[in-house]
Specification:
This protein has 206 residues and is an alpha/beta fold. The protein has helices spanning 2-26, 92-107, 128-138, 151-155, 184-195, and strands at 50-53, 59-61, 81-87, 113-120, 144-147, 163-167, 173-178.
Length: 206
């Protein structure tokens, strides 16, 4: 009788231990609770993309310009700081932001800087030809990439427009602007001047 009681207590102990261990294995880090990785953050590696250029209908690879390793390092030896701006035809603040980005591109035309517009979140009826016509109508001179499936917008968590992401020469996100910010171009230009001087990846803060 005593042996049966001891066995019962022992197996209850093992069950509770296993249950506690299971809870411990699958328990979330308290700091991660409520902070799902559904947003892009400064310090993240920029999601790669391959998107068609609206003008030339040629694919543009982010890794031709920046990243831990370039796509064709034997051919593409130059690294660039990259600015991507998500926009759409219906976005009113984009009409103010894009001309300022065009001026910025002119300012850095002799430097290793690339600025891309990424057209996204359009209606199904808004075709690539519609984008081209709009670019011509508004006089946009920056390369415009077509994100008709919103894949890039989803990977960058671009839920509202406009959204600007500044990527350093090693593929790390260094700045994010969600929504239009007055005088944003002054701040980004200043940041770009620092990024183009960097010859080694930034060291993460401890």
């Amino acid at each position: 009788m005593r042996f049966a009681l001891l066995c019962s207590v022992f197996f209850c102990f093992l069950f509770n231990l296993g249950q506690s261990r299971s809870e411990w294995i699958f328990q979330e880090d308290p700091e991660e609770q409520g902070q799902r990785r559904d947003s892009l953050r400064v310090g993240d590696e920029a999601p790669t993309f391959v998107l068609l250029d609206a003008a030339g209908e040629e694919p543009v690879y982010l890794r031709d310009y920046t990243g831990k390793t370039l796509r064709d390092p034997w051919k593409n030896k130059q690294r660039y700081a990259v600015v991507v701006s998500f926009w759409a035809s219906w976005c009113e603040p984009c009409k103010t932001e894009i001309p300022l980005l065009m001026k910025m591109a002119e300012e850095f035309k002799a430097d290793p800087v690339k600025i891309f517009l990424i057209n996204t979140q359009e209606s199904a009826a808004f075709s690539a030809d519609s984008v081209r016509a709009l670019i011509k109508q508004r006089g946009y001179t920056l390369p415009c990439l077509l994100d008709n499936t919103t894949t890039a917008a989803q990977r960058y968590a671009a839920r509202s427009l406009p959204m600007i992401v500044l990527i350093d020469k090693f593929g790390i996100v260094r700045k994010i602007n969600r929504g239009y910010h007055e005088n944003f171009h002054i701040e980004i230009s200043k940041f770009l001047r620092e990024l183009i001087k960097e010859e080694t990846p930034p060291q993460p803060s401890k």
